[in-house]
Amino acid sequence: MELSPAPKGRWADLPEDIALALASRLQEADVCALGGCSRSWRAACDADCVWERLFRCRWPAAAAEAAAASRVQGWKALYINQHRRMGVAISNVVEFVGSSLNNGWLESECYLKAIADLALTADIGFLDVQFFLFSRNHSAIINLIGLHYSIASLHVPVSKALLVILLHFSYG
74, 71, 14, 2: which is closest to 41 by C-alpha? Predict the structure, then answer.
């Protein structure tokens, strides 16, 4: 019985530097999805250089402080921890608005306080708003707060912010 030859051109046979270069050009969700494809892609997608770039792009102000800790924890762990911290900070704002809505309405001062609280939390960016505020599960007020914060504090163009919301709700 003759064995068939090994398939040529497998992704696992890619040189490590090329796999890292590809993974380094992806966004968070794509890195995670690609890492689930095979052991070799998982190794490339878990690389510190991939997560360092993602961290620095998403939270540039926090990156300087994180650099020292990265030697101990690694950039992926730092990214996950920072993502969780952002989630907690933003969920506090969501809970505040939710408790204010228990009466069936929201006073303008509560709305403005929610925006101010987001602005006081260091390094909340547009991606954080997308992850934690733009959701079908939230009230329209929460989504509106995310939109208002993105436009007023992050200076995201109105057209881009609205497009992201439309895409998020179409596919999300």
Answer: 14
118-151 per-residue burial string, b: 16 or more CB within 10 A, e: under 16: beeeeebbbbbbbbbbbbeebeebbbebbbbbbe
Domain presence at residue 104? yes
Residue 106: CB atoms within 10 Å:
18
Tally of domains within the chain? 1
CB-based contacts of 121, cutoff 8 Å, min separation 6:
86, 89, 90
- 102 located within any domain: yes
pLDDT at residue 172 greater than cutoff 60? no
Structural domain including 125 reads 71-171
Least Cα distance to 141 among 82, 92, 83, 98 occurs for 98
The pTM (predicted TM-score) of the whole model is 0.82
